[in-house]
Amino acid sequence: MPDAYRRWRESRLGQITDRLEEQLILELVGLPAGRRALDVGCGDGLLAATLAGSGAVVTGIDNDPRMLTAGRIRAQRVGLAMEFVKGDIHRLPFGDATFDVVIAVAVLCFVSDAERVAREMARVLKPGGDMVIGELGRWNLWAAERRISGWLGSTVWRAARFRTAGELRRLVSNAGLAVTATRAAIFYPPCVATAALLAPCDSWLGRRTATGAAFLAVAGRKMSFQHT
Q: In 3-state terms, what secondary structure has residue 218?
């Protein structure tokens, strides 16, 4: 998996796409300086490093030791203090109301019980804190390509569940949070030339519609202390 991440990020399509997705997530998170942030399903720590570089106090959690090792190597390489924890995101090993910001990007599509993970994310969030979920959209050419890969034998994409913006809002609402924003990104097909052409207007589109977007993000706020 770390090698797959690296190959994707070294590709031109990956660089364009990741930049737009990261920009969208950071806009929803706001200014994280001094805030405690939890990156759920942190992977190799790229988003965690970006948040830490902006001044957040970051913890990443993942169940894959290879990902955690990659994250720690990244932290050492860039000289940032980040904590990486091995754990089951269905049962987050943190106390209630621990974090100011809780984020999960392209994670819930791969878990067995997304409702439970969302409730756990809300549980560890402080009152007034923000939760941001970024996910792979259901109706777009990227999702179609991934479904075909699953039908042809990819175990990763065969098990994935892609969601609509409405389904993501319900996940956030059912976790007891007030939905504060719905945004979208990646309106181009998985093609380098088209990505380069359309990337400059992607953010403009994402503020106006989610139709056809390959990446969706929903933010929610914990309005009062609650057990979820």
A: strand
DSSP structure string for 36-63: EEEEET-TTSHHHHHHHHTT-EEEEEES
Cα 184 versus chain centre, distance: 12
- 72 and 101 Cβ atoms separated by less than 8 Å: no
Q: 57 — phi, psi (to 5°)?
A: -95, 105
Cα pseudo-dihedral 214, 206, 166, 219, rounded to 10:
110
Query: What number of residues does the chain have?
Result: 228
Question: Could you tell me the pLDDT band of residue 33, with boundaries at 50, 70 and 90?
Answer: confident
CB atoms within 10 A of CB 208: 9
Q: Which residues of 193-204 are buried (b: 16+ CB within 10 A; e: fewer)?
A: eebeebbeebbe
Q: What is the mean pLDDT of residues 35-44?
A: 96
- C-alpha span between 203 and 21 (Å, rounded): 10
In the chain the domains, ranked by start, together with CATH numbers, are: 2-217 (3.40.50.150)
How far is CA 157 from each of CA 90, 128, 206, rounded to the nearest angstrom? 20, 35, 25
| pTM of the predicted model as reported, rounded to 2 decimal places | 0.92
Locus of tokens 């990227």: 142
